[in-house]
Amino acid sequence: MKIIMLGAPGAGKGTQAKQIAEKYRIPHISTGDIFRANIKDGTELGKKAKEYMDQGLLVPDELTVALVADRIVEEDCRDGFVLDGFPRTIPQAKALDAALEKMGEKIDFAIDVDVSDESIINRMSGRRACLNCGATYHIVSIPTKEEGICDKCKNPVVLRDDDKPETVQKRLGVYHEQTQPLIEYYSGQGILRSVDGMRNMQDVFEDIVRILGA
Ligand code: AMP
Fold first, then answer.
1. Which end of the chain is more exposed for a tag (fewer CB within 10 A), N or C?
2. How far apart are CA 149 and CA 158, in angstroms?
3. Residue 140 DSSP class
4. 196 Rama class: left (phi>0) / alpha (psi -120 to 50) / beta
5. 49 three-class SS
6. Domains within the chain, CATH numbers bracketed
7. How far is the CA of 24 from the centre of ligand 1 (A)?
8. How crowded is residue 123: how many other Cβ atoms within 10 Å of its Cβ?
9. CB-ligand 1 contact for 48 (6 Å cutoff)
10. 177: which DSSP letter?
């Protein structure tokens, strides 16, 4: 099953994507995570990506598309994948369709996790991330066991630069302008399914399972 997660930054699509990956035994491919791993490792790609990410801007399509095109042909993607944070622009979506078509494949579902802008801003200011292992928390809804310390690797958790309020506003603007048009794009293909992302994570996940099938 090939799935795309759509939704504003902070809508909870990453959390849902991880659960989908686990239940349906398919890889979770997050372009944001791949960029952050590259930044941590100090690669050329990481250096380029960071310039855009820290400003709340999208990394240019040519860098992002190549990365995903290489990833989805790997062996573990044979039975499908869940893409989280990609595509984020119409050209990315078209490039993905073209890459899949070459393989005789197509996307099965584009799931839009719908959340209001106001809740996104509230949620993201409470988000904390471990820059060492990538685990994410929320000071209210998913707190760390020990304040400020990652449960998994015991490193400090921080408010990521791209989750700071001024950057979040910018990212929301970028989302409405460049990513939201994908809703219409996938609706036109008949594969869009929307879920109400304002409820708790488990209820949202149950809706998704109803869509994908048990
Ligand atoms: P995320 O963790 O998905 O919210 O991504 C964090 C940041 O990485 C975004 O704000 C962008 O700067 C960059 N990024 C992730 N995925 C993409 C993409 N598909 N296209 C362009 N930039 C991306």
1. C
2. 9
3. T
4. beta
5. helix
6. 2-115+177-212 (3.40.50.300)
7. 24
8. 19
9. no
10. I
